[in-house]
Specification:
The complex is a heterodimer of chains A (about 150) and B (about 425).
Chain A lengths: L3 H8 L11 E7 L4 E10 L2 E10 L2 H14 L4 H15 L9 H7 L12 H33 L1
Antiparallel strand pairs in A: 1-2, 2-3
Chain B lengths: L14 H6 L7 E2 L3 E2 L1 E2 L10 H14 L9 H20 L8 E4 L2 H14 L11 E5 L8 H10 L2 E5 L12 H4 L4 E7 L11 H11 L2 E5 L11 H4 L3 E5 L10 E5 L1 H6 L10 E4 L4 E3 L13 H17 L1 H19 L5 E4 L10 E6 L4 H10 L2 E2 L1 E3 L4 H6 L5 E5 L6 H18 L1
Parallel strand pairs in B: 3-15, 5-6, 5-7, 7-8, 8-9
Antiparallel strand pairs in B: 1-2, 4-10, 9-10, 11-12, 13-14, 14-17, 16-17
Classes of the chains: A alpha+beta (about 150), B alpha/beta (about 425).
Cofactor (chain B): pyridoxal 5'-phosphate
Family (chain B): Belongs to the class-V pyridoxal-phosphate-dependent aminotransferase family. Csd subfamily.
Catalytic activity (chain B): (sulfur carrier)-H + L-cysteine = (sulfur carrier)-SH + L-alanine
Chain lengths: ~150, ~425
Amino acid sequence: MYQDVILDHYKNPHGRGLRDGDAEVHHVNPTCGDEITLRVRLAGDTVEDVSYEGQGCSISQASASVLNELLVGKELAEARKVQETFLELMQSRGQLEPDDAMEEVLEDAVAFAGVSKYPARVKCALLSWMAWKDATAQALDDKAAKSARETV
Amino acid sequence: MTQQPGLLTASSYDVEAIRKDFPLLDRTVHDGAKIVYLDNAATSQKPRQVLDALNAYYERHNANVHRGVHVLAEEATALYEGARDKVAEFVNAPSRDEVIFTKNASESLNLVANMLGWADEPYRVDSDTEIVITEMEHHSNIVPWQLLAQRTGAKLKWFGLTDDGRLDLSEIDRVITEKTKVVSFTLVSNIMGTVNPVEKIIRRAQDVGALVCIDASQAAPHMPLDVQALQADFVAFTGHKMCGPTGIGVLWGRQELLEDLPPFLGGGEMIETVSMHSSTYAPAPHKFEAGTPPIAQAVGLGAAVDYLTSIGMDRIAEYEHTITDYAVRRLREVPDLRIIGPVTAEDRGAAISFTLGDIHPHDVGQVLDEQGIAVRVGHHCARPVCLRYGIPATTRASFYLYSTPAEVDALVDGLEHVRNFFG
């Protein structure tokens, strides 16, 4: 489970710390007390920044770091594809052997494949990804509401 | 390294013989690692004697209880009620009718809260009264009282904790007052192992005429439990932590209270007569046991009580104290390890929670598991304790009658490995 890639991200996290964002969410994993506060900043259709602060196990913290590395700078549609692929991998109960196509999409995140065998830890790995999805939806809603007001 | 205490290998308590009664302790995990089971505060393993009793019940005697005149119904009833006798004797209850079977300690505590919520005076909890608990309770002894307080308007108060994991009773006269209707607290903390000073709390509660409910879930498996000596009004515990099956719990209550207090769950078994307009109720304990009870589970608990009694609760307590003392000493040798709770074996049970530097308990538990060592990680259903000590979670090792000094050593070695891995 503890691949070197995961331990590296845990010890040297990418993009940690809260910066300006269009939306902020706070997600917790009640079974273990993992917590994350995550902000998303969008520039048009691009994920300009994902910043976060949290506490938790190496899996949850490393996963947030990988998320930052993978999603920042991507077009939203592309970022969503990464998120959905990661979700698919994590929900595979260890039955899914990542192929080349999946590795290309997930890059470092493919190292989490082993975590999917441990049901108790899947939530740790998904915490930041669910927070990102939630924050992105909020940011888009806010933007839509704002532009609706401006149109009126 | 701290020397393993000689008493543990003395012939007076043959832990190796006891271990042979527990088939699960023989199994291996992760390609050959022998299981080191240190999650006993969550649930205990089961001896062959209990497994056999469950099997025998289903293979030979299974029927519903208290109904039917056929031979199986009579045998099942005798076994179920026989288990009640055994539990009554185990806790030194003055009467077998004071032993109510529930599905677990949570249900027992919820039952007390609901009895008091629906009771008439003088027991009724309402908006002008107070409920007292403590900050070290398991969620099962917090949430039922929060619900009762919210529904009745009663005020919920609690004892805080000292830095060394004890109840802070310095303000006892201000916490328990003339308005207090019920004081509910744990005898032994499930997260910190603290053994609480029952007498002091009960004396104050009695002075103001409050009822006392004790959560003995972490006490009944480990030490002699005497409800008469405790002088409480209610004592709750669960079967699966004391070598019994899951799905069976106990609420002991003083007879006159059980006679006066109203039922909570209605249904079959708990009635005397029923018409479409109203019903009258069976006497306690049946008044509080609506529906088909957990029959096999009660029989299994009876077998567990027999098993523990055959070894002797005094001897189990003495042995566990030695193991706890050894474990606390050895854990204190581990660099960066902080025990959450009492740091000596004095007035403490065999559940030991700790943090290990900045390494998250989930990671500690996972790397220990890879070595075959089973511990619990998280907030142990006692999140207020984690908040009190400013930590997100702990790792908890908890011992039982079959735990050995070698298992303590395995834990300490395992923690060394964890430190190196994440260091």
